[in-house]
Amino acid sequence: MRSILLWAALLGVVAFLGGFWSFATRVRTEAPEPPQAQAIVALTGGSLERLSTGVRLLEEQKGERLLISGVNRIVTDDELYAVLNVDPELGACCIDLGRRAEDTLGNASETASWARERRYTQLILVTDDYHMPRSYAELSLAMPEAQIYAYPVRTRFTDPALWRSDWPTASRLVSEYVKYLVIRGREALISLGTPEEEAPQDETKADAPA
After folding, report:
1. How many alpha carbons lie under 13 Å from residue 103 in its C-beta half-sphere?
2. Which of 5, 65, 71, 152 has the fewest CB neighbours in a 10 Å radius?
3. pTM of the complete model
4. Distance (Å, rounded) from C-alpha 151 to C-alpha 42?
């Protein structure tokens, strides 16, 4: 019995390491420019480039409106627009600042409410590369009816030369991978309790990152 448990533990470790290696490789993949969509969502919490990329896509008319989800409550609209060098007229007409979200799950909930209020079903999702699989999974669960185009922003944390030699960086990626696994596990449990005819269909999704 002990040997069976030992082998099971070893297989579990190997599976985890293999999954992590695949995860770290996939999140480093260069993303193509996103297609035209109805709207854009950029998530706060990591690099400022997430937000500036969302603004750039809006200026390029990749979507008619931009939601910046998870803005700190003490930051004013003008302060954020100044940091992002946003034209005030563009901000007034086409950018919404969400301040309810405090984590990735909150981002998904905030985005779903915002999108449904405006009847958006095609969204470009912008966040850091290592954060994209978890963000995409959360938003897909919150909006199973939507087409979501992942547009990850490259960060230094996914550089193999860095995370393979720097423990804090590797820990960040491992932590993100574990959180992603938790979401996929939750997704699997939800699917088990959903009648087959009501289960989300994979073909309705677009550009899944992982």
Report:
1. 5
2. 5
3. 0.86
4. 10
